[in-house]
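The step that takes the researchers longest sounds almost clerical: writing a folded protein down as plain text. Below is the pair of lines this work produces for a single protein:

——
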Amino acid sequence: MSHHDFTLFTPYPFKVGQKIRINGTKRAGDWEVIEVGDLKMTIKCPISGTELKCDRFCGFMEERHNEPWPADN
């Protein structure tokens, strides 16, 4: 068996009520998770109240603690 470098992506276990910040996509900004299904999730902007139903996504995750949310840009 040969060995290779690779990147592993794992579905993130989103939870209702979780506050998240997305960078680098069309969904960039601060959101609150308000619904999580097997394939879709609904997130809500804490400023405008806009809700967005989207495919669940995965990627690199970094947790931050004791920081302002939503961001004051």
In short: The two ends are 50 Å apart (CA to CA). The chain has a mean pLDDT of 90. The CA atoms of residues 17 and 62 lie 17 Å apart. DSSP finds no helices and four strands in the chain.
